[in-house]
Design goal:
The protein is of the alpha/beta class. It has 10 helices and 8 strands. It has a single domain, classed as TIM Barrel (Alpha-Beta Barrel), CATH 3.20.20. It has an 8-stranded parallel β-sheet with strand order 1-8-7-6-5-4-3-2, sandwiched between helices. The radius of gyration is 17 Å and the shape is globular. It binds 1,3-dihydroxyacetonephosphate (13P).
Length: 278
């Protein structure tokens, strides 16, 4: 069932469990993600990042996303991840995405507020939910062409002001994760004190980007202490490659099956880790 982001995230925040937002960059991944969520009877935000539009067009992502979301009973949100400009976001809304993220986190606060308000006005008019980011989660995988950027922690004052000034439905905050693989496979140290302060000060669901490699303990605790939505991308690529290497496929069909299975395992792990949390 295709559903807006706000309904799913507000229910999760009230129930104190997390929702996984897996990014797909192949049509197979979209199918695997929806079928996995449906098998576990757990909603997800099926996410497509603007930075991947060179691999699948927005139109293809919308078609396949809506097709699979509408085919199952489990609530599925079709989400545009890391939208970079108004025109692209507007097209996503027109094509049927039910949630969009504007990432203007590299701009200054006033500009971020101004741009986010424009997107909120356009999206809310169509019943589409909006996520934005304050502070900045850096890293290397923000899009295929994305440059590596450093993280900037979210401050409580900025988050509070930003949420009130923009009317966003959820807010991505920066508390120590980054996009992509951590150097030396180290587990990042999260600032849980800041997370608790943010959760107490901001009324809308909080989002954690850069979920891959963050560690199960960190993620369970993050959800316990105020994160509602968890973005994951890189771990699907790692999981698919591990499965492919283990399967040693001798045909493209076998290779595709192994890739699908690797992604299914990774999503199952994250859903069981945070969405089933009491
Ligand atoms: P990872 O690639 O680190 O999981 O980050 C994904 C993400 O935050 C997408 O928005």
């Amino acid at each position: 069932m295709l559903i807006d982001g706000k309904s799913v995230l507000d229910a999760a925040k009230a129930g104190r469990y997390g929702i996984v937002a897996p990014d797909f960059l192949t049509l197979n991944a979209a199918r695997v993600f929806v079928q996995t969520a449906d098998a576990l009877k757990t909603p997800i935000l099926l996410s497509f990042a603007q930075g991947h539009a060179g691999l699948i067009s927005l139109e293809e992502a919308a078609l396949v996303g809506k097709y699979w979301a509408e085919k199952v009973d489990t609530p599925i949100v079709l989400h545009l991840d890391h939208g970079q400009d108004f025109d692209f976001l507007q097209r996503a809304v027109e094509l049927g995405f039910t949630s969009v993220m504007l990432d203007a986190s590299m701009k200054d606060m006033d500009e971020n507020i101004r741009l986010t308000r424009e997107v909120v006005a356009c999206a809310h008019a169509k019943g589409v939910s909006v996520e934005a980011e304050i502070g900045h989660v850096g890293g290397a995988s923000e899009g295929i062409e994305g440059a590596t950027t450093d993280s900037v922690y979210t401050t409580v004052e900025e988050a509070k002001t930003f949420a009130a000034a923009t009317g966003v439905d959820s807010l991505a905050v920066s508390i120590g994760t980054s996009h992509g693989v951590y150097a030396g496979s180290r587990t990042p140290e999260l600032n849980f004190k800041r997370l608790q302060e943010l959760a107490a000060a901001v009324p809308v669901p909080l989002v954690l980007h850069g979920g891959s490699g963050t560690g199960d303990e960190n993620l369970r605790r993050a959800v316990r202490e105020g994160i509602t939505k968890l973005n994951v991308y890189t771990d699907f690529l790692v999981g698919a490659m591990a499965e492919i290497k283990a399967a040693e496929p001798d045909s493209l069909v076998e290779l595709q099956k192994a890739s699908d299975e690797g992604m299914r395992k990774v999503l199952t792990h994250y859903i069981e880790l945070i969405s089933k949390q009491p």
